[in-house]
Each structure stands twice: as structure tokens, then as C-alpha cells.
Write a structure and sequence with these properties.
The model is unreliable at about 1-20, about 90-100 and about 110-115 (pLDDT under 50). This protein has helices spanning about 130-145, 160-165, 185-195, 215-220, 235-240, 250-255, 265-280, and strands at about 25, 30-35, 40-50, 50-60, 65-70, 75, 80-85, 120-125, 150, 175, 200-205. By secondary structure, the chain is of the alpha/beta class. It is built from seven helices and eleven strands. The chain has two domains: about 1-100; about 120-215 and about 260-280, Rossmann fold. About 30% of the residues are buried.
């Protein structure tokens, strides 16, 4: 009988030949695991970004995330596989063959469900634009969960704000930080806060200079975000490079207007926001 999944890719061939990684067609409802993140889910759709196709997986909680295709990027029943699209892929971000109505975050929409009274826990973000983006994509989910998003206006005073909040098991704080990269001021502040409030405060970040960059360029019809020289205001530089009026407020409205769902956001932001929501809503 033929080996459906191929041989062990880590095993040495006695004749010295390299084992090939099997290729699998990502048909609807195929359950696979992302080798890098461990996210496990069923194939429910496709998304085409600036770097190529990504398969959309739905986990057992009904949450969806896009994952880029690549050699040995997924596991099927514990074996490394390379996924390929079906010959006739479905339309961008749409469900395969119908299915339940989805919120902008990819969750299953809950009909006739009143918003929950606000929890004691909070999600804090640095600015109003971060808050507006989270509201547009995760707003329905947050209202169902009773989670309030507040903007900080920066994190220089984060330790003071957390101490004033007095977090505990029923009053957790999840913080989303822009440009959280090793060695940065933001990272030092985050580390000091989490070391003191490790159980009840979670500080996560994305690597982008500004939340604008967390929106996929393809959503705006451009190939990539412009590279702005150091020392030049980033948002104003982006507006100039794209031929827009130097009005960052109007530019943000234009950018946000192109965001339709989670599929228009970069995975580096998607994963962080989902993790913060899970943290502040955990029993």
C-alpha cells in the first residue's frame, strides 16, 4: 500500500538521498498545524497579500488567522508538509461553500446577543488610532466579552498607571505597545512592569514604527510602505511619498477606510491582539 504521507523527512536515507517533503492540496476542512506557531485549524479560505497567498485556518474556538505558504510550513498528523492551493481557489477571504456569518475579526457572529456589562479588566493601547483599528476589527468581539479598550497616549508612565489601576485576578490589564523591539525604551518599560505584575499584566507589542504599518500594503493598493529616512517624521513622510496631502488625520481616515477585516492586517499585530483578548477574558 502506498505511503499517503511520505517517509519521515528527518530520517537518513541509507542510499544517501535526501527525503522530500510531501506536498498536500489544502482542500476545505483539511486540519493542519502551523509549524512555526503551533496554531492548529481547518482550512476555510485564502488571502492574497503582497508576498503571495496565505491559507486561512480556523481553530476550534472559531477564530481565524492567515498563514503564508512555504516549504514544510505546516504539519499534518505530526508530519511536515508543503501546502498548495487547490486548482480553483475560492475568492479572497471568503468562506468555502458558505457557512456562518463572521465578524471582522473572523469570529463566528453571535446574533441577538446583547453587549456584556464591562469587565474589570482592560486593554490599553498607546494611541487613539490603535484604539480605532482594534474597534473596527475586534469591536463586535470585545462588546460580547465586555472588554473596554483605552488609549494611554504613550507608555512612559505605564508603571504609574498600572500601580494606580491595582490589577488582580479579576482586574487584569493587557497592553499593546508600538515598536516593541529588543533594546528599545519601550521594551525596558515593558520588562519592568511585567516583572512586578507578572500574573495580572501582559505587555505585548508589534515591531512596526506605527500602527499604520500593521495594515497590509495590499489593502491600500500599494506594493509596500515607503521607507522614511531617520530623523524625518514618519507619518508626514509616508503622506509625501504616496502623493497625499500632509494631513495625518485625513490620511489615517483614508487608511482605516480600506480595512475591512482581519485579513487586511499583518499577522504580527493579529496574534498580539488575540493574545491580549484571551488574557483579559480568561476565567
Amino acid at each position: 500500500m502506498a505511503d499517503l504521507y511520505g517517509s519521515d523527512v528527518l530520517a537518513d536515507d541509507p542510499r544517501g538521498r535526501k527525503r522530500t517533503i510531501p506536498t498536500m492540496v489544502a482542500d476545505p476542512d483539511l486540519v493542519v498545524e502551523c509549524a512555526a506557531s503551533g496554531w492548529c485549524g481547518a482550512v476555510v479560505g485564502w488571502d492574497r497579500g503582497a508576498t503571495g497567498w496565505a491559507v486561512i485556518l480556523e481553530d476550534r474556538h472559531g477564530r481565524r488567522r492567515p498563514f503564508e505558504l512555504g516549504p514544510a510550513a505546516f504539519l499534518f498528523e505530526g508530519r511536515a508538509v508543503t501546502l498548495v492551493r487547490p486548482v480553483a481557489p475560492p475568492s479572497r477571504s471568503g468562506p468555502l461553500g458558505g457557512g456562518p456569518v463572521r465578524t471582522a475579526s473572523g469570529s463566528v457572529a453571535v446574533s441577538q446577543h446583547r453587549a456584556r456589562v464591562a469587565r474589570g479588566s482592560r486593554i490599553w493601547v498607546e494611541g487613539s488610532q490603535d484604539a480605532a483599528l482594534i474597534e473596527k476589527v475586534w469591536g463586535d468581539d470585545l462588546r460580547i466579552e465586555g472588554v473596554v479598550v483605552e488609549h494611554l497616549g504613550g507608555i512612559d508612565d505605564l508603571m504609574e498607571r498600572v500601580r494606580e489601576f491595582e490589577p488582580d485576578g479579576d482586574h487584569r490589564v493587557g497592553v499593546l505597545v508600538d515598536h516593541l523591539v529588543p533594546g528599545s525604551k519601550e521594551t525596558r518599560i515593558a520588562d519592568s512592569v511585567t516583572s512586578e505584575f507578572a500574573r495580572d499584566v501582559l505587555v505585548l507589542g508589534h515591531p512596526y514604527v506605527d500602527v499604520w504599518q500593521a495594515i497590509r500594503p495590499s489593502a491600500l493598493g500599494i506594493d509596500a510602505w515607503p521607507v522614511i529616512p531617520k530623523g524625518q517624521p514618519w507619518k508626514e513622510g509616508v503622506c509625501g511619498a504616496l502623493g497625499w496631502n500632509i494631513d495625518t488625520g485625513a490620511a489615517w481616515g483614508r487608511i482605516l477606510g480600506h480595512v475591512r477585516s482581519y485579513a487586511d492586517l499583518e499577522p504580527a499585530l493579529l496574534g498580539r491582539v488575540e493574545e491580549l483578548i484571551d488574557f483579559v477574558t480568561a476565567p
